[in-house]
Amino acid sequence: MKKENMLYFLEAQLEKNLGDYDFAIDWNTKNHTVEVIAVIYAENKGEQVIDDAEGVQTAEDIIEFEDSLMLYNPDKFTPNAEEYLTLIPYEGKKGIKKAVLVALGKYLGQVLTEGESDLLDFLDDDAAEVFELNWNQTEFDALLEKANQSTDYIAYPKY
Predict the structure, then answer these.
(1) pTM for this structure?
(2) CB neighbours of 98 closer than 8 A, spacing ≥ 6?
(3) Which residues are paired to 88 by β-bridges?
(4) What gap in Å lies between CA 5 and CA 93, rounded to an integer?
(5) d(Cα 11, Cα 69) in Å, to the nearest integer?
(6) Is the dihedral angle over the CA atoms 69, 75, 80, 82 positive or is it negative?
(7) Is the CB of residue 133 less than 8 Å from the CB of residue 112?
(8) Mean pLDDT for the stretch of residues 139-157
(9) CA–CA separation, 101 vs 6, rounded Å?
(10) What pLDDT digit, counting tens, does each position of 11-48 carry?
(11) Which domains, ranges and CATH numbers included, belong to the chain?
(12) Residue 108 — very low, low, confident or very high, per pLDDT cuts 50/70/90?
């Protein structure tokens, strides 16, 4: 059996809480980061022409929206906050509190559910100009407070 670490525990939490949503975990050993990429889909019934973040236009039947969050070691790397849904620091080799990963899985599931609904509304509203997922740090912190029964840490993975 493999020793439990941030990657395995995070994956288990995401599988438990994200249901049918697609996700990927990208571990960058050079920068000591763990990126969680989540995807939502929506049917483009009105065949709206959508511009993506790079300015590419599409009128596909199914719109795919991808966003990501990052776990990072502030002593090793400072990501650009504007590029991510949220940034969550961890403590080097010590890792991250188990409660943070539990709360992250639960809250990301809520964000994706609300985001999927908002994406459908966006596609039905000709006046809407921008769609993005919304991470509310206050809501996440409240969920973390409820989950924070333990001070157990999950270690950063070894190479």
Answers:
(1) 0.89
(2) 9, 150, 152, 153, 154
(3) 71
(4) 10
(5) 14
(6) positive
(7) yes
(8) 85
(9) 8
(10) 999 999 999 999 999 999 999 999 999 999 988 876 77
(11) 6-154 (3.40.50.11250)
(12) very high
